[in-house]
Amino acid sequence: MSNSGKVRCQWPGDDPLYIKYHDDEWGTPSHHDQHLFEMLILEGMQAGLSWITILRKRENFRRAFDHFDVQKVAGYDEAKIAELLNDPGIIRNRLKINAAIKNAQGFIKIQEVFGSFDRYLWDFVDGKPIQNQFKALSELPGLTPLSEKISKDLKKRGFAFVGPTGIYAYMQSVGIVNDHVIGCFRHAEVQK
Prior knowledge:
The chain is mainly alpha-helical. The chain has 10 helices and 2 strands, in the order αααααααβααβα. The protein has a single domain (16-191), classed as Endonuclease III, domain 1 (Orthogonal Bundle), CATH 1.10.340.30.
């Protein structure tokens, strides 16, 4: 129970930024390629870190990565990489930055083949979000056979930092799965 009287998942705690993300975005089905790209890059940046760390830097990432314009990110050169590595507002990890560029290039190739990344991604679930019925945070899996399948397919297409655990978190964030616990007010809202 929060101070607003709403019962929600426990993981946001009392952090206003986490609560806003939980209440407004997490688990909501996303069909916009730019948002799908942003979340894919942010999930890759999160590897080994806490999600709240990424959320606190999200606006900095948007600024640094040209508001996640996939065409621009795909064309980043060594000068831009050096600029990113010197930006204290983001995660300054060369492997993750290089992966973001590589993933932008792969994202564009998927758009060319499937018409959109949205179509590619949502085809894995026949266009319908998986509606889980978990009662407690402890029941949520870290990965699933589906996240392993998507991860494997993305890696085959040249993507990096897309392991099955990160992909499951991505699936949660963009609403491929509804992992709000059934007592959370968002569970029913997202299900609609």
